[in-house]
Design a protein that fits this description.
By secondary structure, the chain is an all-alpha fold. The protein is built from two helices and no strands. Helix 1 runs antiparallel to helix 2. The longest helix is centred in the C-terminal third of the chain and has 25 residues. The chain is elongated and about 40 Å long. The relative contact order is 0.19.
């Protein structure tokens, strides 16, 4: 199941809360960016089907 873009974006923002990305969080950040793109795509497709 794909999480919502809003939830994934909140996690991304949390990683950047200090103003910079901790090098230990780089892999997690990259995974979240991919997940965010997938969530946006899924939400867009869902909206198009509903229209």
């Amino acid at each position: 199941m794909i999480r919502s873009a809003e939830i994934v974006n909140a996690e991304i923002r949390e990683l950047w809360a200090s103003g910079s990305l901790d090098p230990r969080d780089r892999d997690r950040y990259l995974r979240l960016v991919v997940e965010y793109a997938e969530a946006l795509r899924a939400e867009r497709e869902s909206a198009e089907l509903a229209a």
